[in-house]
User: Fold these one by one.
Assistant:
Number 1:
Amino acid sequence: MRKNLLLIVWLVLIMLTICTALVSNSTLVTTVAVTFILVLAAIKFILVANYFMEMKKAHSFWKFSIIFYLIIVMGTLLFILK
Amino acid sequence: MDTSTINSKNIAYPPGGILLWIIIFLELFTFGAALVAMVLYSKDEPEIFHQSKLLLNTTFGAINTIFLLTSGFFMAKSVENFKENKIEKATFFLKLTMVGGVLFLLLKSVEYYFKLQAGLTIGYNTFFSFYWMLTLFHVIHVVVGLVILLFNYVGFKRKSTLNLEDFEASAAFWHMCDLIWLLLFPVIYLLF
């Protein structure tokens, strides 16, 4: 199961990357599209940290720190862009 | 080789070690602050940022994302095999990880070549100042990461004393390059 899990995470990451590219190719760069692109980036970030870097197994402090970082950065970007 | 496991649930022992995670967060906050600054500047020159963004090759950016994510996947597989004491397989996946990194650098070089040919240098405008500074700084991290992985690879080949903590730290540094790129790609290539 563990072996397949990494493969599944990788496939999800590739699909999310393709989704991001497709959304960005739409001619309208709307607030919704921008939010969607940043949310997809945040999801990819969490997947890499939790599964490839094994933060899922780490102490809650480290998991919370990653979420905290994403909220700060993505939140600030969205606030400026809106 | 010492492939014994570490209790990652302990706050002082995140996978890769606490010192490396302090560095990772410092790096992430540095890049995050630079991206926030870039978006702030774009508010002053929205048309220039939009026109400049159209000069970037999004396909190159997306392919490079796939190269780094795939490389990260192989790195995770390598660590997994190392923990199971399957050194041959760990070495094989480590080699694939490095191939992913080299492919990323090759495609980035092609992209840089086209930009320089078109005269889109660091002083061209504000957008390209950020583009060059952020992507070049990231490229330096990828090169350093590759050197670290090469040391691990040589260690595997010589069957020298490589322990799990060292290997996890190397892997965490490599994944950090993924994380940084996952922030750079959407903001620089897609947002404006």
Number 2:
Amino acid sequence: MQNKLTQSAAKLLLAVAVLAGCQSRDSSFKGTELPEMEFKDFTLTDQNGQRFTLGEQEGKVTLMFFGFTYCPDVCPLTLSTWKKVRESLTEDEAQKVEFVYITVDPERDTPEKLKAHLAVFHPDFIGLTGTQEELQPVYAGYGVYREKDQISDSATGYLVNHTASIYLLDRNGIWKLKHSNDARPEDIVHDIRLLLKY
Amino acid sequence: MRLTPMFLKIGLLALSISLFCQIQACQKADDTPKIEIENIWSRPVQIENEDGRVMKSNGVVYLKIVNDGEAPDRLMSMTSIVCDVVELHETKMNDDRMMMQKVDGGLDIPAGETVEFKPGGYHVMLIRLKRSLVPGDRFALQLVFERTGTIKVDSEVGQP
């Protein structure tokens, strides 16, 4: 009798452990969690010439990428991934998500250049530029590496080497996660949905 | 002069070596690269603003270079009518930092191997596009190889 009870209790414990395991897998992020950081607000100019302030995007999850429109490879790859992410979200979810592309090449990326570049991918994407004085604190605040490659003799002029991760900010504007630029769209969608639950 | 067996042996050996070298030389002369270009595609790019003014913009082409031949070849340069300059570039990632470099001096395509140009690696950079690249568009690209010469291909613009 006691043996049976012990066996039943062990089975129950095992079932609870398995369920807990599943629960923890379901609620865990696919991206890399970032260290705690306080909210860093900024105001820049979007592709329509309007001022964009992060602090005014209340309750929205923000995807953030630092790139430049002269970059033909990794930056469009990221925008292509974002397009798949955006198209995987329901319209209700999309209302609560911002896709924010911040230039690392403000000398060449004017609002009109950003507008033409982003229009190819999705009309909801926001492209931001600004003066060096406006942008430097944003780069510094998010630990973004950005360096003009003056040595290259490319006909495109200079190139810009830069941090190429996709950041996810939670609904309070606090950065939470990092994905690589070749991340699977479904992994990013998974993390957006988790952040929308908070 | 009397031919001793030793002289005969040396003579035969020299003759064999000479024949072997000639056969090798003939085979070498037949060794050529056999280059084919596959999976050629580009990303769409819009170069005009809302008023139709053209802005400086770059594009990209990805492809595979297959060398089924017995000898290596080297991609030396590229041209296209859709842009001012075509360059070979390579993206390298160092942790989460992206670095893009121009590849100078050509690119080796070893015998029997395939070199793939793909996002995050080698790519053909179209500098200062002369027109927008719209999904479904096709445009010509010429690749100049050291031994094979010029190969003309069409790149198709895919979805963004």
